[in-house]
Design a protein that fits this description.
Elements lengths: L1 E8 L2 E8 L3 E4 L11 H10 L17 E6 L8 H14 L7 E6 L8 H8 L1 H6 L2 E3 L8 E6 L5 E5 H4 L3 E7 L2 E2 L3 E2 L13 H8 L24 H13 L3 E7 L5 E7 L3 H14 E4 L3 E7 L9 H13 L1 E10 L9 H4 L7 H10 L3 H15 L2 E4 L5 H6 L3 E3 L2 H12 L6 E4 L6 E4 L2
Parallel strand pairs: 3-19, 4-5, 4-9, 5-6, 9-12, 14-20, 15-16, 15-19, 16-17, 17-18
Antiparallel strand pairs: 1-2, 7-8, 10-11, 12-13
Length: 431
């Protein structure tokens, strides 16, 4: 008996009939009630912190307080909704606006424009307190705070290092390298020096040159994860005084706020991320059919890489993957697509080791998955040549992708896992 499934593709839906008896799982995120009163939820989190005294017992009148805010690439965190509440709470603690400032933690990204500061922080916040851009390349604006247990020299933003108190803010999600985003990522890479960022991110590569990726650096993986532990060392050196992080519903609304100790409060937030987005699976499938969920999650291959990575986690070694991604802006961003000029995987790996960038790493990981098993991408006709050039198999219809997958598997009794919203759902293999 067949069952018809619908998959998001840009603004459209693609349909495919699949044999119901061969489907072992449909992986979908869990519903979670959104926060209805953001200000009240933030105040409650600040008043009941995890692992620290309340904010009013940490900050003192006369102290300078620096607040780390993520850059425009994390605009989904919606800082403009909760930063005003945080500033008001600091006012209530005896800290006037004149004794606060914000640093945009751009990491190795470009600085914001003034309009982007307003978009991320909100007009009111930008009028109330100074907003500065972190510059990872300017040694004069960096302060040395020590060396991690893995030997990475740690430089952070000098303005924040010299402040009396540092508060870090952000959003917690699954992260394909660090296990989870948020928390210590507001230190590394957000306000770290470029050499420090490079030193940390290289832990995502295998210790042995020529062996590619470090398999321990993956979504949901914290123990062991060399990158994560090195980031934690850096946070210990930077000594942030307080954290305010948010977790989101599958619809992108606030699910809950977490406040307190930079690790303990963040760790509590990761448990909720696992509850909402981590989907337990008993077995990997021969064939995984995954959609990013449509536009904008499939706007380009870089965004679609989350779908590829999550689908790979649900697939058996030697199996096949179908990813449904329109990719209307296939070449964007160029700092991602240009990496596919390396056709030899060893050359690709060495280029990453010599000049690590996140887009480069993501490109390498996609190419690595395509080397290991058939990775069939349903996309727009004009994208076919580029996608084929990455080592993936480009097709323009879901039926064609299914036919090729069956040919590659070479058997009729293959198992299937379906992932309609694969950009956000992470398969967690039990046992």
């Amino acid at each position: 008996m067949e069952k018809i499934f619908e998959f998001g593709f840009g603004d459209q839906k693609l349909k495919l009939a699949l044999p119901e008896e061969q489907i072992i799982q449909v992986i979908e995120g869990r519903a979670y009630p959104p926060v209805t009163d953001v200000a009240a939820a933030v105040k409650e989190a600040l008043a009941n912190p995890i692992g620290t005294p309340p904010l009013k017992e940490i900050v003192k009148p006369g102290e300078k307080v620096g607040i780390v805010v993520s850059d425009i690439t994390r605009a989904w965190v919606k800082f403009n909704f909760f930063l005003p509440v945080l500033l008001d709470e600091l006012n209530a603690c005896g800290i006037p606006d004149s004794d606060m400032f914000i640093v945009i933690g751009v990491g190795a990204h470009r600085a914001h424009t003034v309009d982007e500061d307003v978009l991320v922080c909100g007009q009111d916040v930008c009028h109330r307190v100074p907003v500065y851009q972190h510059d990872c390349h300017n040694q004069d604006e960096l302060a040395y705070v020590g060396k991690t247990s893995r030997g990475v020299e740690t430089y952070i933003n000098k303005r924040l290092a010299e402040a009396d108190r540092m508060i870090i803010t952000g959003g917690i999600v699954y992260h394909f390298m660090a296990g989870f985003g948020g928390g210590r990522k507001s230190i590394m890479p957000a306000i770290s020096g470029f050499r420090t960022i490079q030193g940390n991110h290289l832990f995502c590569m295998n210790k042995e040159v020529g062996k590619g990726l470090n398999p321990l650096c993956a979504s949901g993986s914290l123990e062991p994860n060399d990158m994560h532990h090195d980031m934690c060392d850096m946070a210990e050196l930077a000594k942030p005084d307080f954290l305010l992080n948010a977790v989101f519903t599958p619809e992108g609304k606030f699910a809950k706020f977490f406040a307190g100790h930079w690790y303990k409060a963040w760790e509590a937030g990761t448990k909720l991320v696992e509850e909402i987005y981590g989907v337990p699976i008993k077995a990997q499938a021969d064939l995984v059919i995954a959609s990013s969920g449509g536009f904008p999650k499939d706007i380009n291959l870089y965004q679609g890489s989350k779908t590829i990575d999550n689908a790979y986690m649900a697939c058996k070694p030697g199996g096949a993957i179908i990813c449904i991604m329109e990719c209307r802006d296939i070449y964007e961003p160029r700092e991602f697509s240009d990496w596919f000029k390396h056709k030899n995987m060893l050359d690709f790996e060495m280029a990453i080791r010599n000049h690590f960038t996140i887009p480069g790493f993501v490109a390498y990981k996609c190419a690595d998955i395509a080397q290991k098993q058939p990775l069939i991408v349903v996309t727009k006709p004009e994208n076919v040549d580029f996608v084929n050039g990455t080592g993936m198999i480009a097709v323009t219809s879901l039926d064609e992708a299914y036919r090729i997958a069956k040919e590659k598997l070479g058997k009729k009794d293959f198992t299937i896992t379906v992932m309609p919203g694969a950009a956000n759902t992470v398969p967690v293999l039990q046992g």
